[in-house]
Amino acid sequence: MANITAAEVNKLRQTTGAGMMDCKKALVEAEGNFDTAIEILRKKGQKVAANRADRDSSEGAAIAVLNSDNTQGVAISLNCETDFVAKNDSFVALATELASLALNFDTKEAFLGADFKGMSVQEKLTEQTGVIGEKIEIGGFEKLSAAFVGATFTQEQNCYFSRFVCCTSRSRCDR
After folding, report:
1. Residue 94 pLDDT more than 50?
2. Residue-level pLDDT at 54
3. For tag attachment on the chain, is the N or C end more exposed, with fewer CB atoms within 10 Å?
4. Which of left, alpha, beta for 31 (phi over 0: left; psi -120 to 50: alpha)?
5. Residue 164: its pLDDT value, please?
6. E strand map for 17-112
7. How far apart are the C-alpha atoms of 43 and 82, rounded to whole Å?
8. In whole angstroms, what is the distance from residue 147 CA to residue 142 CA?
């Protein structure tokens, strides 16, 4: 059995986002091999994702992103099971990163197959399901193109609403 240090566990935890005990168990099982431990955690995440596949993911974060010249926009919803996870800063940050990437794709399917830091978006969602312990999925994907695209968000109680505005020119949208 390999002697696993707290620093090694912490490094694996920082890399994967997995829980401390899960990281320690993975390192012990991998006999201290960092890459093997990551693969063990990934496989564990896939098992968790498979067990949670039939769960309802009705909470989440809706993010809209526009390109620099406001001619294209994309809105995605990154869904999860509970509002506790949906309000988490790292979950919202992930949703924002994914929305920025989504701007480069026209369909949800192409987006899910896109590279995200060395893995596909779908693989990242599966990994995060294992890390967080909740079903994580892309619930909505809408892309718009026009001479001018704008996005607005409003909040009523605990619900957030977004809408896109598409116009033939910027001046025709000013109201």
Report:
1. yes
2. 73
3. C
4. left
5. 56
6. 59-66, 72-80
7. 24
8. 17
**What's the order of all strands across the beta sheet hosting 72-80?**
59-66, 72-80, 137-145
In the three-class reduction of DSSP (H, G, I as helix; E, B as strand; rest coil), residue 123 is classed as helix
In this prediction, residue 175 carries a pLDDT of: 42
Q: Which domains does the chain possess?
A: 6-52 (1.10.8.10), 59-173 (3.30.479.20)
SS3 of 7-25: HHHHHHHHHHCCCHHHHHH
Amino acid (1-letter code) at residue 77? S
Q: What is the pLDDT of residues 2-55, one digit of tens each?
A: 688 888 888 888 777 777 888 888 888 888 888 888 888 777 766 665 666 677
**For residue 159, what are the β-bridge partners?**
156
